[in-house]
Amino acid sequence: MIEGHKDPMICTPAQTSFIAAFRQQQSDVHATAVSKGWWDQARNDGEAIALMHSELSEALEGLRQGNPPDDKVPEFRAVEAELADVVIRIMDMAHARGWRVAEAVVAKAEMNKGRTAKHGGKKF
């Protein structure tokens, strides 16, 4: 069951493990951001989301450049490292705001299983 969820949903052991691991990593990521001064002052939600966008743009640019090894963690390709940065920024903000992103990921993934193919008729 997802703790704190208004409509309790039963979780598989893998989902429960994912939530616990995500929450722990989220806490660690936020502690690092705090220790590096990123939370010395209140942070604006719009700015935080814009920074997530910027990381996605960096992932796109990595693809445009042929997805070379990342310059900071060369054991990963540019896209991998930039997508990791997106997740890190999401985790940091979610922890600071008390948002249940891990639980939402599980709930949305379960909901998606019941959707029709290419639901909504979108072309891309």
Provide an overview of this structure.
This protein has helices at 13-35, 45-64, 78-97, 101-113. The protein has 124 residues and is mainly α. α1 packs across α3 and α2 runs antiparallel to α3 (78-97).
Pattern of helices and strands? HHHH
The coarse overall form would be globular
SS-based class: mainly alpha
Architecture (CATH level 2) name: Orthogonal Bundle
Give the oligomeric state of the chains in this entry, treating copies of one chain as homo and distinct chains as hetero: single chain
Helix content: 55-70%
CATH topology: Helix Hairpins
**End-to-end CA span:** 34 Å
Unreliable residue stretches? none
Number of strands: 0
Biggest sheet layout: none
State mean pLDDT (0 to 100 scale).
92
How much of the sequence lies in strands comes to: under 5%
> What is the count of DSSP helices, taking H or I runs of 4+ residues?
4
Number of individual domains: 1
Radius of gyration based on Cα positions: 17 Å
CATH class: Mainly Alpha
Properties at a glance:
124 residues, globular
Concise structural overview:
The protein is an all-alpha fold and 124 residues long.
